[in-house]
Write a structure and sequence with these properties.
This protein is of the alpha/beta class. Among the domains are: 88 residues, no CATH class; 78 residues, no CATH class. The protein contains 24 helices and 11 strands. The strands form 2 sheets. Strands 4-3-7-2-8-1-9-10-11 form a 9-stranded mixed beta sheet. Strands 5-6 form a two-stranded antiparallel ribbon. α4 runs antiparallel to α18, α12 crosses α15 and α20 crosses α24.
Length: 545
């Protein structure tokens, strides 16, 4: 019979957070003692190391799907458990789910609009911002409201001035479980975005919605990963992230969290060099041990500039071009404040777009955006497409998109499988049956036997300090484990144009270095175990060439 880690071992943090070769060998030996009954077939998971030391390629979602299907058969007569298991089976075939969270006015909906490239999330303080809202890719637009009593109904699709207008049709927000917005979008094809109500809200009920959504009482949350927005690093932000990762049921770790300085232009008071200041602050935060233990990285983004750049209209460009063509000293004086820019002009002033148009530009671009756009037009940008692209580039959005791709969507199958296994573990423990122990053993075997999960666990241990390495070695270890991206050249620190020979030489060199650390008698046990994991990762790279 396959042995599981004890509950005590899980609580003290040694089980799922650290790699243990001895544990894997124990599983291999004990698996042969008593074959499981026909009702629960053993999931074929490769051991932590093959006889030749070469990792075997694994289909994580396939393994998890098989154990979920077996659980569905076992729990067929238990309607609630069966429904939850089927939901997690469906989840394996869906894009990775990324929740956007943060304090009130952190810019969550604005950033979501920027990521999607359309203004479909409400950014005002209306009733819909108090409800968890899912945004999914679909062939045709549709908005569905699901109430807490289980009933669902479609809502009308209304667009005004290029914005999608969301309303609850007279239903009180506290009666709504969630809204689901289906929208044709290539940006949503690889990830489902979930907009959550602001934490630390004046309304306790509103804050509780997000906390309950991300840290449910009994099983893995609905999101596979989280983007946490901060205007500044505040104690409330750190407290929420600590609670999020400390939640036993969700099994969270820094590897599924990215932090965003979401209103980065405000850090520099709207100056044209504000993003440079924000990047310097983000760099310091990334090096902070406390921040490292809570998230993978920190990315500065001027959310409003990003949203406007991705949704800019020709009429807005025309208005900006007219202002850029006017007397520069006069316009610069107008840009001392947002209020001054939107005022009615006195007699004798240059001919400029109306106060209403200028106020609308300030609403859409912000002071920072207007200050960036006007010089770009004066320097030779002559069309809205080129200006929009430049604004997006300067907003920091592309850096965030690259981070989400490298850390979440490229690792999507692994994150989804992890979410499903955490949820199944909770279901099995909360509703035990005769076959439960065998199913739990299967779950444990996948977690301990699949090298991708071992990598993920070690990556989390490195970031939280559970495995301590010198800073240079730790940076290399995190990179080799996929902490900055899954591609082989990224893991090895090579250029995208690296040849197969360069990849082979770099992987061989890294494998030799980490093998020496693993075999060094002076290496502490956690360091030696970590080094063996990294050696296996390098072997996997070499075997795939």
């Amino acid at each position: 019979m396959i042995l599981r880690r004890s509950k005590k071992n899980k609580k003290d943090g040694k089980g799922s957070d650290e790699y243990s070769e001895e544990y894997s060998e124990e599983n291999e030996n004990s698996a042969a003692e008593t074959p499981p009954p026909a009702a629960v077939r053993e999931v074929p998971v490769p051991a932590a190391r093959s006889p030749h030391g070469t990792p075997v390629s694994t289909d994580i979602c396939g393994q998890v799907r098989l154990v979920l299907q077996q659980a569905a058969e076992v729990y067929a007569d238990h309607a609630e458990a069966a429904e939850r298991i089927e939901a997690h089976l469906d989840r394996l075939d869906s894009p990775v789910r990324i929740a956007i969270a943060g304090k009130v006015k952190a810019g969550k909906s604005t950033l979501l609009n920027a990521l999607v490239g359309e203004v479909i999330a409400p950014t005002d303080a209306g009733e819909c911002t108090r409800v968890v809202t899912w945004y999914r890719n679909a062939p045709a637009p549709r908005i569905v409201m699901r109430r807490r009593d289980g009933e669902s109904n479609d809502l009308p699709i209304i667009r005004q001035n290029g914005r999608l207008e969301l309303g609850l049709g007279g239903v009180a927000p506290e009666e709504v479980d969630r809204l689901t917005v289906d929208w044709p979008s290539g940006d949503l094809a690889t990830m489902t975005l979930i907009d959550t109500p602001g934490i630390a809200s004046a309304s306790v009920e509103v804050s509780t919605r997000t906390e309950d959504f991300l840290t449910p009482d009994e099983e893995q949350g609905a999101a596979d990963a989280i983007v946490y927005l901060m205007r500044h690093v505040h104690a409330d932000d750190m407290g929420f992230l600590e609670a999020f990762h400390a939640h036993a049921a969700i099994g969270s770790s820094p590897v599924n969290t990215v932090a965003v300085l979401s209103r980065a232009d405000e850090i520099g008071a709207g100056r044209v060099d504000a993003l440079q200041s924000a990047r310097a602050i983000a760099s310091r935060l990334r090096a902070d041990e406390k921040i490292r233990s809570l998230c993978q990285t920190v990315v500065p983004v001027a959310g409003l500039l990003a949203e406007t750049g991705r949704t800019m209209r020709q009429a807005e460009f025309n208005a900006l071009a007219a202002i850029a063509a006017a007397d520069r000293d006069y316009v610069d004086a107008m840009l001392l404040s947002a209020d001054r820019f939107g005022r009615e002009l006195p007699e004798g002033a240059p001919e400029l777009p109306s106060a209403a148009i200028r106020s609308a530009l300030m609403t859409r671009f912000g002071l920072f955006g207007v200050r960036i756009a006007l010089p770009l037009i004066r320097q030779g940008i002559t069309d809205s497409t080129a200006l929009a692209g430049e604004l997006v580039r300067r907003s920091g959005l592309e850096e965030l998109r690259e981070a989400l791709t490298a850390l979440f969507t490229e690792r999507g199958d692994l994150l989804k499988a992890r979410s499903a296994l955490m949820a199944l573990d909770s279901i099995l423990r909360s509703t035990p049956l005769a076959e439960t122990d065998l199913l739990l053993a299967q779950v444990e075997k996948i977690f301990s036997g699949a090298h991708e999960f071992v990598e993920l666990a070690l990556l989390g241990s490195l970031r939280t300090g559970a495995v301590a390495l010198p800073s240079e070695q730790r940076a290399e270890a995190e990179r080799l484990l996929g902490g900055t991206g899954q591609a082989q050249f990224v893991r090895l620190g090579l250029a995208p144009t690296a040849s197969l020979q360069e990849i082979r030489e770099a992987a061989t060199d890294a494998m030799s270095r980490w093998r020496r650390r693993a075999e060094n008698p002076a290496s502490a046990r956690p360091v030696a175990d970590a080094a063996r994991v990294i050696v296996r990762t390098c072997e996997g790279i070499l075997s795939s060439l």
